[in-house]
Amino acid sequence: MNRITISNPFTLKNNNITFKNRIVKSAMSEALASKNHLPTPKLFRLYEEWAKGGAGLVITGNVMVDHKALGETRNIVLENNENIDLFKKWAEAGRKNDTHLWMQINHPGKQVLKGVVGEAVAPSAIPFEPDLQRFFPKSRALSIEEIRGIIQRFANTAELAKLAGFSGVQIHAAHGYLISQFLSPRHNQREDEWGGSIENRFKFLAEIYHAIRTKVGDNFAVGVKINSSDFMKAGFSEEDSQFVISELDRLGIDLIEISGGTYERAALFGKDAKPSTVKREAYFLEYAEKLKEKADIPLVLTGGFRTPSAMNEALQTGATDFIGLARPMALYPDYANNLLLNNASDLSIKTIKTGFSFIDDKALMELTWYSQQLGRIARGKSTKPNFSPFLSLILTLFKNGKEVFQKRRV
Fold first, then answer.
1. Can you name the residues that pair with 322 across neighbouring β-strands?
2. C-alpha 3: how far from its chain's center?
3. Beta bridge partners of 324
4. For residues 382 and 376, is the Cβ–Cβ distance under 8 A?
5. How many domains does the chain have?
6. What backbone phi and psi angles, to 5 degrees, belong to 14?
7. CATH number, domain at 213?
């Protein structure tokens, strides 16, 4: 076992980009955009706090590639350079303290709830399960022309992110969004070149990567967030995931972040995790270990890490190259510094439950409660780790009405 720890630097093999340590602030939905879907001073303050907080890499929440395709009402959209100065301010704030800042770029596909946009699109016109579909508009299948147009939108947004000063982009191919829908045989039942075999279902992501690389060149970092599995019958499987990641490695992707599940199966929150998984902390560690036996691509493993000992053990066994942290960084923006200085006590992140099963069973308050913590940081206030989920619910309903739970995404 080697002695690598979270404090060691890491250099990407494809372009010699070096990170000062192995800690990654994983993407979280901030819901801090303006009404016109632009970055705001609150967002600048939040990312400056994370940059000062010590992580080697900070990844933004969803930035959408099309203003007509939003995951939630306060998503940021980057599709032209009309307000590029605002994005430059965001990049400047988030790159302080020798921090890398990557923009996560995304298209929701049909995973957009009623009232957010006028139309839902998908690889195929396949509905969600009935208890979930009632919250979504009916989707229609994309035409080949539309598919190619979305590919170019991803490339355009990546090019603009580079222009604004971000040091990389992460393509969001997990959690049931459009790329994840293309990868899933459950949601992609096309009979043309974009559906069927895993090779065909992978084509949409592969073409997005090629288009982005053509726009940004070889020295700009491009990563992908992808599921280990959808954890659904007839869904995207571990075998599919291993194939896709091996192909991405061959194509030259710089960094893979492993996650899992969708909003139909919320594995991303550790829901229904096995006792052995809880003990080792990382939700997808076993998958990462198997993956590392087949591919030499740099990995970020996100979800479940709470103690420095577990983080360092995952690095030292070679299961992962980076430790991804999300919820801890929403409560303690300087958590990375505390870890690096050995000042961090073992962290316990409680499950956010209101007592109302229709909310708790779908982890709706997990998103809203943590978003409120991010809002406090963005306003220059301290977080409230012991804030009552019930009071959070009352505040949310008072401010936004019950429809807010139909518009939250990560």
1. 300
2. 29
3. 24, 302
4. yes
5. 1
6. -85, -30
7. 3.20.20.70
Cα 267 to Cα 49: distance, rounded to the nearest angstrom: 28
Rounded to the nearest angstrom, the gap between the alpha carbon of residue 370 and the centroid of all alpha carbons in its chain is 15
Q: How far apart are CA 310 and CA 323, in angstroms?
A: 10
Number of helical H runs and strand E runs in the chain: 15, 13
How confident is the model over 319-374, as pLDDT tens digits? 999 999 999 999 999 999 999 998 876 666 777 777 777 666 656 677 788 889 99
Distance (Å, rounded) from C-alpha 360 to C-alpha 351? 9
Whether 337 is in a domain gets the answer yes
- Collapse the DSSP code of 66 into the 3-class scheme (helix H, G, I; strand E, B; otherwise coil) and give the result: coil
Distance CA(88)–CA(94), nearest Å, equals: 10
Judge whether 201 and 255 are in contact, CB under 8 Å.
Answer: no
> Interhelix angle for 198-216 vs 238-251, to 10°?
30
- Rounded to whole angstroms, the Cα distance separating 406 from 39 reads 23
Which structural domain, as residue segments, surrounds residue 216?
Answer: 10-347
Residues 138 and 124 sit within 8 Å (Cβ to Cβ): no
- pLDDT of the residue at 269: 47
| Of 340, 399, 336, 284, residue with least CA distance to 5 | 340
Which two three-digit tokens encode residue 76? 């940021």
Residue-wise pLDDT for 298-314, tens only, equals: 999 998 888 899 999 99
Does residue 364 fall inside a structural domain? no
pTM, 2 dp: 0.91
Nearest of 112, 25, 20 to residue 60 by alpha carbon: 25
Give first-to-last CA distance, the chain, whole Å: 35
Contact 67, 135 (CB under 8 A): no
Tokens of 71: 């995951």
Assigned domain for 377 exists: no
Q: Does residue 386 lie within any of the structural domains?
A: no
Give me the sign of the Cα torsion angle 312, 262, 141, 81.
Answer: negative
pLDDT tens string 175-214: 889 999 999 999 999 999 999 999 999 999 999 999 999 9
- Residue partners of 161: CB distance under 8 A and separation at least 6: 63, 78, 87, 103, 105, 169
Cβ atoms of 244 and 190 within 8 Å: the answer is no
